[in-house]
Design goal:
InterPro entries: ConA-like_dom_sf (IPR013320), Glyco_hydro_32 (IPR001362), Glyco_hydro_32_AS (IPR018053), Glyco_hydro_32_C (IPR013189), Glyco_hydro_32_N (IPR013148), Glyco_hydro_beta-prop_sf (IPR023296)
CATH topology of the largest domain: Tachylectin-2, Chain A
Bound molecules: beta-D-fructofuranose
Protein name: Glycoside hydrolase family 32 protein
CATH class of the largest domain: Mainly Beta
Domain Glycosyl hydrolase family 32 C-terminal: 349-470
Radius of gyration: 22 Å
Family: Belongs to the glycosyl hydrolase 32 family.
Strand order of the largest sheet: 22-33-24-29-30-31
CATH architecture of the largest domain: 5 Propeller
Number of domains: 2
GO molecular function: hydrolase activity
């Protein structure tokens, strides 16, 4: 254990709880000038345990104030993942005077003496901007007689049919329910058999509509997280489907697997809209860890952090529809000092010294004739992470084998890869924080989110080539003083 790991690994830009264990983001919602982030929280230890909903609020989604625990376990079980909505029209009857927040979450009752666990959906409501909550007396509001995996309700208002819609993870499918009032739910349809990856249990679904960039077309997107299965090398990861939704049934355009992130550390992410009726930006945030090693990562006193918030859109690339992720504009105001990297030809190595420990780098790289090229984040003199584009295979590889502490999991050593259409011209944005890298390639077309545990975030960044040259230009931004 590094002696100063408490301070060293603690992120500057990413949300992490002050102490103890955190996993999935829950109930993200914007209400009366505040962004709310609830999260899976174990207040009595730094490993996963009886789940509560932790709570934090923010004015800009970057600086968070952690508040008291929002939801505690009760006679129906511990509090698993779910969502929150503003019941603007008092459909539930909880808000006779003014609108407030409703949390829709899973109660998990652990099985005992040969009896299986039971998962049901429940409600709680708040009249004071999420500071205190009342559990609905009719809980649970939705259960299942036989399905053990029956969780993670994500609810939104479906304008076209004027109903609430719920997506629920039900084993290796997603089941959709509708409701007029958040209390009574009706089965609509089930999606998933034969579609996408079934490497593990399906978790944390999220269904929403997005505009296709530069067109009038709209697409429905269904995000589905896939739990860790020890038979495979990936650990937990996130896939998505693009298609249509008619108020009852989701139809996917494709059976193939589309990954939301090619790094190992973006899981259980869900999105929300920052304007009522789903009309605002679609903002996504994921849990920056992997179930394969989340309980072992070498932080002390606290465990886990969230990704930076990302704005989602859909881009048509050839015949394919891709979910695009861009860091929200709010991040820019945290980086004021900008140093240009003037257009140059690189052959070998070009180093940019970094004065502050965390950086936001934007680079355009154009291959002239290099076989391989990329960037190295020098966390310290000995510790580094490399990002390499291999032109012969058109792949991008993120290698964190020398990035600092790595020995807590075999899977942490494996390279993270993505196949690109081509590597002749690539654009990248990279944010380096104390213990993570968030890499977005080609204006958000590919995302690689990766934890690292170096002694320092970053001392220098170098651009490198192998067997040939590239053209490079861009800038590095440093945090406000
Ligand atoms: C996903 C998940 C959810 C569940 C929660 C429990 O990471 O397994 O399916 O609700 O974590 O903490």
């Amino acid at each position: 254990m590094t002696i100063n790991s408490l301070a060293t690994y603690r992120p500057k830009l990413h949300f992490a709880p002050k102490k103890n264990w955190m996993n999935d983001p829950n109930g993200m919602v914007y209400f009366q000038g505040e962004y709310h982030l609830f999260f899976q929280y174990h207040p009595d230890g730094t490993t996963w345990g009886p789940m509560h909903w932790g709570h934090a609020v923010s004015k800009d989604m970057i600086t968070w104030e952690e508040l008291d625990i929002a939801l505690y376990p009760d006679e129906h079980g511990t509090i698993f993942s779910g969502s929150a909505v503003v019941d603007w029209n008092n459909t539930s009857g909880f808000f006779p005077d003014e609108p407030g927040l409703v949390a829709i979450f899973t109660h998990h009752l652990e099985g005992t003496e040969g009896k299986p666990s039971v998962q049901t959906q429940s409600l709680a409501f708040s009249h004071d901007k999420g500071r205190t909550w009342t559990k609905y007396e009719g809980n649970p509001i939705l259960g299942h007689d036989t399905k053990v995996d029956f969780r993670d309700p994500k609810v939104f208002w479906h304008k076209e049919t004027e109903k609430w819609m719920m997506s629920l993870a039900t084993g290796q499918t997603i089941t959709f329910y509708s409701s007029p009032n958040l209390i009574d739910w009706k089965f609509e349809s089930e999606f998933g058999e034969g579609f996408g990856s079934h490497d593990g249990v399906w978790e944390c679904p999220d269904l929403f509509k997005l505009k296709v960039e530069d067109s009038d077309e709209e697409k429905w997107v269904l995000i589905v997280s896939i739990g860790d299965n020890p038979e495979f090398d990936n650990g937990s990861f996130t896939q998505y489907f693009t298609g249509s939704f008619d108020g009852s049934t989701f139809t996917s355009d494709h059976e193939s697997i589309k990954l939301l992130d090619f790094g190992r550390d973006n899981y259980a992410g869900v999105s929300f809209s920052d304007i009522p009726e789903e009309d605002g930006r679609r903002i996504y945030l994921g849990w920056m860890s992997n179930w394969r090693y989340a309980n072992q990562v070498p932080t002390e006193g606290w465990r886990s952090q969230m990704t930076l918030p990302r704005e989602l859109s859909v881009r048509k690339v050839g015949e394919d529809y891709k979910v695009i992720q861009r860091l929200v504009g709010e991040l820019d105001s945290y980086f004021s000092e900008k140093v240009d990297i003037d257009e140059c030809i690189v052959e070998g190595t070009k180093t940019v010294k970094v004065e502050e420990s965390y950086v936001d780098l934007t680079l355009n790289l154009e291959r002239v004739d290099a076989e391989q090229f990329g960037i190295t984040v020098h966390h310290t003199i000995e510790q580094h992470t490399t990002i390499t584009f291999d032109s012969s295979k058109n792949v991008l590889v993120l290698d964190r084998k020398k990035s600092g502490q790595i020995d807590f999991s075999d899977m942490f050593l494996l390279d993270q890869e993505v196949k690109l259409e081509n590597t002749d011209k690539v654009q990248l944005r990279l944010v380096v924080d104390s213990s993570s890298l968030e890499l977005l390639v080609n204006d958000g077309e590919y995302s690689l989110t990766s934890l690292v545990y170096p002694d320092k975030a970053c001392e220098a960044i170098s651009i490198h080539t192998f067997n040939g040259t590239i053209k490079a230009a861009g800038y590095v931004s440093f945090p406000c003083k």
